[in-house]
Design a protein that fits this description.
Distance between the termini: 29 Å
Number of helices: 14
Number of strands: 8
Low-confidence stretches: 1-55
Largest sheet: 8 strands, mixed
Helix content: 40-55%
Mean pLDDT: 81
């Protein structure tokens, strides 16, 4: 998901990228979004980008289709009928039976707790279906009075259920607009305050950044993949500008999460789940924005990038 323009690594930052944020957030974001020509951006993404092309495979397969789950099942049936992905799709559809519960919670509190239980149990179920050997390193330090931006590397479509099955709180993804058209899944992601973005539309990217700030200001936690797309080789890619700046503007907390091994469970663009794979989730220390000085706030992308790099490297050694 290429929804922010590229940033450069430490030592390569342009002078204009280290300027303080202006009071006009909309203008800041629009200026950043227009830095790269869309055609050049597409060429950059497609070049040697297995992760991007993998995402395109899913998008193109479902484009213009009405019964999208049937399309996915038909595609999967071409493979081994014992493919665990069939069970994963069925388990996702089962969540649809929980939707009528919304009527009950219209007259009593506790709806968000219900949403968390549904999404968390769905994630745990998909982890079980794939027979993932999950190891969690570290603990989630969840402040009660601050919104949180969970930041993770992105190597597989299965990152979403793995994260949802692991997080101790309700949070919404910043996700590609295609997910907004998937029945059942789209409903529960919307109830979790997920934000869907059209990666090819500059106005959509600007609107997305505003929504991230709005959600955080409303104490709604957010999950982002700052690379903007699935990694082509499993290594951490350059971050895309915007998401972490929104965290700074909203004075949120940032929790870095490194995923290692999910790519082996379901590679980008594939429909075959490979069971019995070992997955490491390495949780970093919470970064409190209000404890950073102005210089550190300007370098938040690089700070989080370096943190995720270390977490990922350590996860690979486990």
């Amino acid at each position: 998901m290429q929804y922010f323009s590229n940033i450069q690594r430490q030592g390569e930052l342009n002078s204009d990228e280290t300027e303080p944020f202006s009071n006009n957030f909309s203008n800041d974001i629009e200026d950043n979004s227009n830095k790269i020509d869309s055609k050049e951006n597409d060429e950059y993404l497609v070049s040697n980008s297995v992760g991007y092309l993998g995402g395109l495979k899913y998008s193109e397969l479902l484009k213009g289709k009405k019964n999208r789950w049937k399309v996915l099942l038909d595609e999967v049936k071409k493979l081994d009928p014992r493919n665990p992905v069939v069970k994963a799709i069925i388990r996702t559809l089962v969540c649809g039976f929980e939707i009528p519960a919304r009527l009950v919670y219209m007259i009593k509190p506790g709806w968000e707790k219900k949403v968390f239980r549904v999404i968390n149990s769905w994630g745990k179920a998909l982890i079980k279906i794939a027979k993932i050997k999950l190891e969690i390193v570290g603990n989630f330090d969840i402040p009660q009075d601050k919104p949180i931006v969970f930041v993770s590397n992105h190597t597989s479509p299965y990152d979403i259920p793995v994260i949802y099955g692991t997080l101790p709180v309700l949070a919404g993804f910043v996700a590609n607009k295609e997910l907004a058209t998937m029945p059942v899944m789209n409903y529960w992601m919307k109830q979790a305050h997920s934000i869907f973005v059209d990666v090819k539309d500059t106005k959509s990217r600007i609107s997305t950044l505003k929504k991230i700030v709005q959600n955080l200001n409303n104490m709604q936690h957010v999950i982002i993949f700052p690379e903007g797309k699935m990694s082509p080789d499993g290594n951490l890619q350059d971050f895309q500008r915007g998401g972490l700046q929104a965290a700074v503007i909203a004075n949120a907390c940032i929790v870095p999460i490194a995923l290692n091994g999910v790519r082996e469970v379901l590679p980008p663009g594939d429909f075959t789940i490979n069971p019995d794979k070992r997955v490491i989730i390495n949780i970093g220390n919470t970064i409190f924005i209000d404890k950073l000085n102005n210089s550190e706030k300007k370098r938040i992308d690089q700070i989080v990038y370096d943190c995720l790099s270390v977490l990922l490297e350590n996860a690979r050694k486990i």
